[in-house]
Amino acid sequence: MTKSLYDEWKKSKALKFESSFYTPIIEAFCQWHSSTDKGRDEKGRIFNAGYEVFIYAFFVGLYRGERRPLSGQTKSFSMEVFRLGDVSEKGTDRKKYIAIQRYIFAALIAKTNIDLVAYDEEKLDTDETVAILMQTFSEYANAGFYAINERMNEQEDYFLHSENVLEFVCGA
Amino acid sequence: MSKLDTLFQEIMSDEDMSAEFGYTPADYSSIERGSKSRNKYVKAIANMLLQYDKKVEEVRMDMRIKNTTGKVVIKDNVLESIYRKLVKDLE
Amino acid sequence: MILKKLTIENFRSYYGKKEFVFGPRLNLILGSNGDGKSTLFEALNWVLTYKETDVDKLPSLKTLVSAKLFKSLPVNYPAPVRVTLMLTNTNGNQRKLVREFYVEKKEDGTMITAKHSHVGYRIVGSKEVAAISVTDILEKEGVFPAKVKKFSILQGEERLNIFEDPTILAELINMYSTVKDLAPYKDLADFILEKGSKAKQNSQDKRASGTTSAKNLLAEIERLRKDEKRISVSLTENRDTLRETGQNIQSISGDYDIIKLIREKKDDVLKMESLIKAKSDELNENYSIRLLDELWILAGFEPIAKEYVQKMEAFEGRIQEIRDEHNRKIGEMYAQQKTLQEAKRKLKESIEAMPGFMPELEAMKLMLQEHRCKYCGTEAPEGSAAYEHIKKMLDEYQHKLEESLEEIKIPQVPSLNLGDNVRTLAGESRSLLRSLEAADYKLKIENAKHANEEIHEKIEKAHARIGSLNNDIERELANSSTGKDLMHYVDDWKEVAQWHEDHGRAESAIASLSARLPEIRRELREKQEKYDKMVSNDKNKQYMDIYKLAVLFERSLVSLEDKTYTNFLADISDRANDYMRKITVDDFRGIITMEPVRSGKSKGAVDVLLKDNRQAIITNPNKSLLTTKCISVIFALADFNQERQSGNGYPLILDAPTSSFDAGKDKSFYKSISKLSSQCLIFTKSFLFKKNDEKGEYSIDKASLNEIDCPVYRIKKNQEGFDQQDLSTIETIVEPIKNTSI
């Protein structure tokens, strides 16, 4: 019997990104204090963990329909997909959002040419299939990083405004 | 009429006083006359006031010279001697 | 005493020699802040004071030197600093007072002063005829005794309330009243009473030591005395409390309503502030986090979800096909199997139906068993040829049957080995899409943003409301007569409430105690008389006399004092009310009444009250009315004094008495005063106003001044060469404006 592709995918650790984006975007977003226009003093950072920036970038690329192969030096987050959204709720006002994994998977399946039928027929190798999915994941994120970077070059403090972070991905 | 005369007259014109000691206030317009009265009470009071007034004026002048202000204070021994005189006068 | 001419030389900002000629009534000296009014005031004070007191310290000489003079002074060349005052004394004789010293600059630039003198002169015509000591002039000739300063030379509006000083009344009584100051006589009365009553008591006690009833009576008397004392003390305390709280209440009672209003507004402000806090806590604009935690990031995910569903359905379709195919094949297989079985059955049947010539199998078998041919009946015993023949045919037939059955084989369909991913994922994909549609993240985001906007609006409105409430509070404070200090009472409302409470309590206590006291005294008197009768004899008759005398003496002194004070104060207030009428003309005024404080902490002071025509105390007199009241009293005193002196009395020298008056009021004030007969020097800012002048200089309101008949001087800082940083450029210019004989 073939393994559950979803479960196998969730075990993967291959969240890859171009190293040059680490400091200016990933690290920065986790240290900057975002501001709100008026109202109370917002102590929050834009995101709390690096992988959250990755997720954000993924959706940026995804919604723009842009994917971009990684070039140059790359790094990856040493964490499995099943940890995405598994935030600690104790002592913070965060909520777990692991449901997002299903959606990411759905997007990856939608956007790759993996023949699931063939997979179910055991005609495809599990590891290779997962690799393709992760590559897609990373390439959309990469496109997202490029877009974010471009916007930051135009306007340094763009992402310091909470509303802009929202607008940039949702176009809301 | 000096201030002392006025004071004496005002005191003597007190009704209770004149009733108690049996004299007519109108008779005593000046302290001089009072000090010569045959009524021992009137005489005693007049002399007491005369004596006391001297002392008070002494102290006042002293204060004026020293340019001090405030209450006029008479020493106890002065008061004592006035009292003794009064007692004697009323025997 | 009438002041005639003041000459001031090199005294502080008065560089060189400046003169002022005074008229017999009102004299105005106009100047604004820093022009030299106070210096002029000090110069007068300096020349009129022959002995410093602790309260009234004169400045050190070095500070009196004009900086401009000192700068221009050559080394070792002494120059005078001098104030000269020409006046006429009560007898109409001319006198001159000169106070001066010399200042010199040493080589090293330091200042030394020397030859400080204060001398007086008798003047005839214009010649100094003889020198007299200043003390003689001021005290002996009664020109300006030191004690008069307290109500003649007054600097600033605050000092006008002279009766706050508890010793003033006694001094005034002493100076003016026809009866001498009674305080020492009361001391005498107290002394005699104490001694007398002790003596009487002793003699009585000796006599009464045996009798029980006398002893009992004495004990009662003691008790009553103690009660009397207790009640007296309590009365005094309560009167003090009443007075204090009354003053406090009066000071802000006009503002009582304002306080209430402000408290309400402050409460509103607090409400708004806590609203702001609550709303701010509700705000959640941490959108980046909400993108993830609340899955807002999926707002644009629908098209992709649909793509996914489509793909999965396509996969599902194909999987379905595969399954269908598989099922079809299995169906075929079963069909084939069925056919085979049918064939087998038919074969079996056909085999069992033997051709005509062959005996049936069973018959053959039977035949074998029975050893007889069924058809012909021949016997076929075992081993016979017929028996063997039948047996052989039977065996062959059975063998052929088995063979043909074995040949027929139906191919098996292999089982389907298919993963579950497509099936599971396809089902999930649909529920994914449904939950996405149901969640409607786009709407959620909009609602959240909208909610935050609303909160911002509410917060802004609350801030605006706070702003306008605070403005209202400021305005109310400005309208109140207490001003900014009122906030203290707004915050500490309990304090004000406490005053009212204490006031009420004191009032009722005083009422009941005042009623009780005479009762006790009456009882005491009765019992005392009874006792005295019980124990009297000749010897203690004498003591009785002394005692009675002392009591009556004291009593008459007290009532005399009362009468004197009352008469004196009534006289003064009558005159003061006269002045009030003249000064306030058409304005509202009250009726001045003056009541002495007879006991307690402020004994000796005088309450100068304003009452309306229903005898109620005016509780909210504004500042200028209060000032007018005080000035009326001061004028009344000056008047009074003039009468008593049967001459000129003392001039009033007032520095800035009307700073709280507004422009219209002070004009009418000075107009009224100019008609009064007392000499008066007033230093003031009135009648000066700023035009929209670039230099910012003040101009004189000549029109208003024309309505006032009195000498007017203007003093001002010389702007030419004036440097703010350099003291030595300060110079006061004296400009006669009108009616002066210079």
Description:
The complex is a heterotrimer of chains A (172), B (91) and C (742). Chain A is mostly helical. Helix content of chain A is 50%, strand content 5%. Chain A starts with a helix and ends with a helix. Chain B has 91 residues and is mainly α. Chain B contains 5 helices and no strands. In chain C, the strands form 4 sheets. Chain C has a 6-stranded antiparallel β-sheet. In chain C, α8 packs antiparallel against α14. The model of chain C has no long low-confidence stretch (mean pLDDT 83). Chains in contact: A-C, B-C. Chains A and C meet through α3, α4, α5 and α7 of A and α9, α10, α13 and α14 of C.
Looking at this protein, list some descriptive labels.
heterotrimer, A: 172 residues, mainly alpha, two-stranded antiparallel sheet, 7 helices, C: 742 residues, alpha/beta, 6-stranded antiparallel β-sheet, 20 helices, elongated
List the helices and strands and how they pair.
The complex is a heterotrimer of chains A (172), B (91) and C (742).
Chain A: H1 5-10, E1 15-18, H2 22-31, H3 50-64, E2 74-77, H4 100-111, H5 116-120, H6 126-154, H7 162-170
Antiparallel strand pairs in A: 1-2
Helix pairs in contact in A: 2-3, 3-6, 4-6
Chain B: H1 3-12, H2 15-21, H3 31-35, H4 40-66, H5 76-89
Helix pairs in contact in B: 4-5
Chain C: E1 2-11, E2 14-21, E3 26-30, H1 37-48, H2 67-72, E4 79-88, E5 94-105, E6 111-124, E7 127-132, H3 134-140, H4 149-152, E8 153-155, H5 166-176, H6 183-208, H7 212-253, H8 256-282, H9 287-293, H10 302-352, H11 361-370, H12 385-407, H13 421-439, H14 441-479, H15 486-491, H16 493-535, H17 538-584, E9 591-596, E10 606-611, H18 623-645, E11 652-655, H19 663-674, E12 680-684, E13 688-690, E14 698-700, H20 702-706, E15 712-717, E16 732-738
Parallel strand pairs in C: 3-12, 3-15, 8-11, 11-12
Antiparallel strand pairs in C: 1-2, 1-4, 4-5, 5-6, 6-7, 9-10, 13-14, 15-16
Helix pairs in contact in C: 6-17, 7-16, 8-14, 10-13, 11-12, 17-18
